[in-house]
Amino acid sequence: MTESSATRPSTRARPSADRPPLLEVKGLSVRFRMPGGRHIAAVSDAGFTLEAGQCLALVGESGCGKSVLASALLGLLPANAQTAGTARTAGTELLTADEAVLARTVRGRLVGLVPQSPAAHLTPVRTVGAQLAETARALTGLRGEAAVRHAAGAAERAAFPAGHLDRYPHELSGGLAQRAATALALVGDAPLLLADEPTTGLDRDLVEHTADELRRQVDRGRGLLLITHDLAAAQRTADRVAVMYAGRIVEIAEADRFFGEPGPRHPYARGLLNALPERAFTPIPGLPPELGDLPAGCAFAPRCPRSDGRCASQRPAFAAGTACHHPEEADRD
């Protein structure tokens, strides 16, 4: 984590009493029906808000449910998924919207997806400029030169060089491919961006560049839900941090308090930071539980140095920003 990220000036948008959040999620749960009548609780009772001009980083180990939550918001879950709760943006309820509404009004227009793998979203036989113009026609109804100009504007906002618009995806570096995918997410002028592991597979310089480009979109007034296991990228980009473990959000905190002082309150979140090479470099012992066989109490209890009998038998409620029976004191030095 660099000095520039640690000292980035805060641009947090403050909640307004006279306008709803850009994204409001309440009690979001996702269960998968499996053969034999089993169920896998991939996401349990997730809740958070996101304002325009803010970035919320959703972090946690691989397999904790982060990407499932993102797929639920975009209506991209498989047929065996069951959802509960609410997720609302711009007056649209995302969890109950049918495919026609999601395709016509949500994806690309209200929510732009910045994908983990640009190669999966860029057509290999068409130039970047052609793909952007085609997306502009589909999302905005513009035609001809107007669509081309709109596409060029999206490329400019994503810092994709105009001189590379006539190139094919295989001619782009990893960083340029990621910027092309970001430009596609911006073509519909979506007020909310959802970036699902956008720095996976990139070297550290490209991670920092990608994080800075996403932060630039936030500073221009967009909301960003950044899903990542890369805590350095989260620190560089986020205003707030939500920590997910075994399908549950166990802590939500302001980024400066989370990465600085007083630090995380939940033992798992504190363990994530302590596992970083630039910190204690101490891994969390043990492994996360199977989502299809969660314990009755706190899912982190078998790995937690603070756990006791209450943790093993009672699931902690989410209160004061954390779900833990024995959180770190908020006012500790």
The CATH topology of the largest domain turns out to be Rossmann fold
Strand content: 15-25%
End-to-end C-alpha gap: 22 Å
In spatial order, strands of the major sheet run 6-7-8-3-9-10
Please bin the fraction of helical residues.
25-40%
Average predicted confidence as pLDDT: 91
Quick one: overall form?
Answer: globular
Under the CATH scheme, which architecture of the largest domain would be assigned?
3-Layer(aba) Sandwich
**Which sequence of SSEs, written as H and E, runs from N to C?**
HEEEHEEHEHHHEHEHEEHHH
Number of helices: 11
Q: Over the alpha carbons, how many angstroms does the gyration radius reach?
A: 20 Å
Describe the sheet with the most strands. 6 strands, mixed
Low-confidence stretches are: 1-13
Please name the fourth-level CATH homologous superfamily of the largest domain. Answer: P-loop containing nucleotide triphosphate hydrolases
Biased composition (Polar residues): 1-10
Membrane topology: Peripheral membrane protein
GO molecular function: ATP binding
Protein name: ABC transporter ATP-binding protein
Write the layout of secondary structure elements.
Blueprint: H1 3-6, E1 23-33, E2 39-50, E3 55-59, H2 66-73, E4 81-89, E5 92-93, H3 99-106, E6 111-114, H4 128-140, H5 144-157, H6 174-186, E7 192-196, H7 204-219, E8 223-228, H8 231-237, E9 240-245, E10 248-254, H9 255-259, H10 267-274, H11 309-313
Parallel strand pairs: 3-8, 3-9, 6-7, 7-8
Antiparallel strand pairs: 1-2, 1-4, 4-5, 9-10
Helix pairs in contact: 4-5, 5-6, 6-7, 7-8
